[in-house]
Amino acid sequence: MEAGMVTPAPALVRFSGIQKTYDGEHLVVKNLDLDIRKGEFITLLGPSGSGKTTTLMMLAGFEVPTHGEIYLADRPIKTMPPHKRDIGMVFQNYALFPHLTIAENIAFPLSVRKTSKADVQERVAAALRMIKMENLAHRRPGQLSGGQQQRVALARALVFNPQLVLMDEPLGALDKRLREQMQLEIKQLHETMGITIVYVTHDQSEALTMSDRIAVFNDGIVQQIDKPDALYEHPVNSFVAHFIGENNVLAGTVETVDKDYCRVALTGGGAVTARAVNVSGAGASTALSVRPERIAIVTDDSSSDGPNRLPARVQNTIYLGDHALAVLDVAGNGEFMVKLQPGAHGSLRHGKSVFITFRPEDCLALDPV
Ligand SMILES: Nc1ncnc2c1ncn2[C@@H]1O[C@H](COP(=O)(O)OP(=O)(O)OP(=O)(O)O)[C@@H](O)[C@H]1O
Ligand SMILES: [Mg+2]
């Protein structure tokens, strides 16, 4: 759609042809078209410097797009100041006011909005109940743990019932356990309150846990926007396949293409059949992607010969409690990972010769890396 054509959209937020440069030369957001639906939990996921925070800051109103327009509930907002946008925000470093109590911190957005005193009291009490911190209302931020401070930041972002809440790495400063607990709490708040959340992280497991949809960023370009399972099962290119979940890569050349499948000669020897996801045709270089849990190790020579059976040599095995990993040498890839049942790794000694098998549908032929 053209940026100038304001047609009503079901989206709460629409980025239309958005570009951003800070120095007038290098585009850090290259050409962003993204619709965010009302009530959705959408995550911007990508490596450091890929443009996630910049995108969020343009939506919040702290950065102005160089080109394009952003619509909030169908209104162009490029020139609207941040405080008029009705957007709540939570950042990594909490940014609570150290000299104010917890209750005063949470009340702050309401006092800016000139809410009546009785209303403020009621809403702050409800917000404190929501984060289960009623008994800590009179403490100051310095007297709270990291997780408690992050809860207060959350309450402060939600207390004025914004239609949209932006969160930029809100759990980045917390340890793993607390982070996982807070992920579930935020998810629950999202479900009970029906708000729209735009969440930024570079942690793919966090994105998979929390999101309705994930936009995968790389170098200022959205590579793919999809539901978590679709990103994992149907990555459109090697970048997404590598960024989401564990992944084995085998380099090769496409020999033949037959509808959705292709036959690939591996650079390190052997040939396999793969889904032709992102290859231009016969003769093209490709990177095959196979997930560690979609591979079987066969030690018995006499077992049946499928289309994808490759000789492998055991490097070592890693015991991880609920599962184990075998590290193999396969077609020149010396770090080829296969996920095993716990206990199944006992017989796989270093140097042992085995075969691996996997289904053609579990092997994706993607752009070369
Ligand atoms: N205020 C600024 N002035 C100049 N360049 C900036 C500014 N803010 C960000 N950049 C540059 O823009 C690019 C994108 O930065 P951005 O902060 O959006 O990345 P990010 O995806 O949020 O990364 P991270 O995961 O590290 O937070 C980077 O190359 C960064 O150096
Ligand atoms: Mg950032």
TrEMBL record:
Domain ABC transporter as annotated: residue spans: 13-244
EC number(s) per entry: 7.6.2.11
Keywords: ATP-binding, Cell membrane, Membrane, Nucleotide-binding, Translocase, Transport
Superkingdom to which the source organism belongs: Bacteria
Gene3D superfamilies: 2.40.50.100, Nucleic acid-binding proteins (2.40.50.140), P-loop containing nucleotide triphosphate hydrolases (3.40.50.300)
Signal peptide start and end residues: none
A GO biological process held by the record: putrescine transport
Subunit details: The complex is composed of two ATP-binding proteins (PotA), two transmembrane proteins (PotB and PotC) and a solute-binding protein (PotD).
Protein name: Spermidine/putrescine import ATP-binding protein PotA
